[in-house]
Amino acid sequence: MKRDKAVSTIVATILTINMAIVMGGVLIAWAMGLIGSYQGGYQIQYMLMGEKMQESIVIEHAWFITGPPKNITIFVRNVGAREAKLVALYVDGVSYNPNGTASPWSYSLPVGRKVVLWTTGVSWVSGTKYLIVVATAKGNQARAEWTA
Amino acid sequence: MVIHVSLLRKRRGVSGIISGVFLVAVAVMIFNVLAWQFFQADAYNRLQQERQQREWERSNERLIVYLPESGISKLNFTVRNAGAVSAHIVDLFFVFKNGTSLYYPLDIWIAPGRTKIIADVGPKLITTDVYFFQIGTERGNVFAPIPTGSGGISNEPKPGQGQAMPFVFPFGYNDFQFSTNNVTWQPAWTQMQSGTYPYFKIYLNNTYSKDVIVKVDDTRISLYPDLDFMNEVVAKTKINWYIAANSGRWIFYDKAGSKLPGAFKSHLFVFLQVFYCFADKQTEIYGTTVAVLAVYLSS
What is the pTM of this model? Predict the structure, then answer.
């Protein structure tokens, strides 16, 4: 304590080292969080893309039935590797609720199985072509053009 | 404590160690991120490959549906798998020309390169029916007969078509022969002589898709002079004759039980009676005539 320089250099050095360690730790924690959130988002995106890719549906057949009631009957089959959730049916760009269901409708279609959707809402004309689209909750579509 | 003091006394201090630790930490973090990203991409690629495999199988599934038989009571058609993968036929879509639409589930597997007859499926048909039909597979492909034509498939029987014959005599010149000594054979149409006791052999085709056994003794040839139906000559088979599915063979008859009647140019009717059973169900015996032939005697 009797020396002129005292201990200020040592204290300053220790303080600097401590500050550097703490700031480095904070920086690593921040970077880890950033990476974690990036990884989380990325993983969800991969998962959704993978699920969408595993899902696949086709329209096998469409009947234009004179009835009564006059209707269009559509056979949809799940040819993918995971259950498909059908949520939309369009005929010539107009949305319809099939099988007398109310909005919003959905139908879970297991792998390899088929479902028959019918709608009485379309006043189809014999000889006319109709574009039929069935969509799933994951955004996949089955499209087919049929002549009544 | 000694180390700490010595570190503190050193001029360079500990900055090198701290920066080293930070560098290692950053390197580990970067490595982890890259490795994680690689595994994610790998998992995604695997799913993509699976999907591509499914799509490949789907696009390589090709069935050829032949036009069905007409004049039938139920749909009867042939399918050939011309694709590279086995096909599982699960749907039958049936639409009559009058607009009636029907659906029938099927459960038929067909291997690549194989041909299969799909019989007795769908609705009951009458001869006036005109219809279209399509079959669907588990992979979502749909196939129809070629050509279906715009007018549909008529179930009306075509000329020459009718009741299916279990056995067919091919009517070749050498398909009906006789012998007087059971050694030397010649065509029987115009060369047999009256007063002889001929042996006979006849070529018979089995049109069944199953093996049949032609029964001994009851399977026989009956010859009748055209002006004298009371004077019958019968030649019987001595053993059972086995004819494989969809193939033909010679059926040999024993020596005629009585001599051939008549004289030169005498005409005789030849009736072929066949009694038979299926090889897998020999207790059920069927009987049929195959053809009515005619011969005249040479002297």
Answer: 0.58
Contacts of B136 in chain A (CB under 8 A): 60-61, 75, 77
Give how far A47 is from chain B: nearest CA, Å.
8
Q: Residue holding tokens 């085709």?
A: B205
Query: Which residues lie closer than 8 Å to A17 by C-beta, 6 or more apart?
Result: B13, B14, B18
CATH 2.60.40.10 residue window(s) in chain B: 167-296
pLDDT average, residue stretch B68-78 = 81
For residues A91 and A61, state if they share a domain: yes
Instruction: Residue B88: name the closest of B116, B66, B69 by CA.
Output: B116
| pLDDT, chain B, mean | 85
| Matching residue, tokens 């019989």 | B119
Residues 6+ apart with CB under 8 A from B229: none
Interface of B with A (CB under 8 A): 8, 13-15, 18, 22, 25, 29, 32-33, 36-37, 40, 43-44, 47-48, 50-51, 54, 58, 90-91, 93, 95, 99, 101, 103, 134, 136, 138-140, 142
Q: Where residue A106 sits, what CATH number does that domain have? A: 2.60.40.10
In angstroms, the separation between the Cα of residue B113 and the nearest Cα of chain A is 23
Residue A17: pLDDT band (50, 70, 90) is confident
Q: B181-210, pLDDT tens digit by residue?
A: 989 999 999 989 888 999 999 999 887 878
Examine the domain organization and report whether A105 and A140 are in the same domain: yes
Domain B63-154 grouped into CATH 2.60.40: yes
pLDDT digits 0-9 by tens, B81-118: 998 899 999 999 988 888 888 999 999 999 999 899 88
* Strand order, beta sheet including B63-65: B63-65, B74-81, B115-124
* CATH annotation of B167-296: 2.60.40.10
Q: Over pLDDT 90: what percentage of chain B?
A: 39
Q: Which residues pair with B214 in a beta bridge?
A: B241, B276
- Say if residue A62 is in the same domain as residue A131: yes
Give the distance from residue A62's alpha carbon to the nearest chain B alpha carbon, in angstroms.
10
Domain with A87, as residue range(s), is 55-147
Are A84 and A55 contacting, i.e. CB atoms less than 8 angstroms apart? yes
Q: For chain A, which residues lie within 8 Å of any Cβ of chain B, measuring from their own Cβ?
A: 10, 13, 17, 20-21, 24, 28, 31-32, 35, 39, 42-43, 46, 49-50, 53-54, 56-58, 60-61, 63, 65-66, 73, 75, 77, 79-81, 112, 114, 116
Contact A123, A69 (CB under 8 A): no
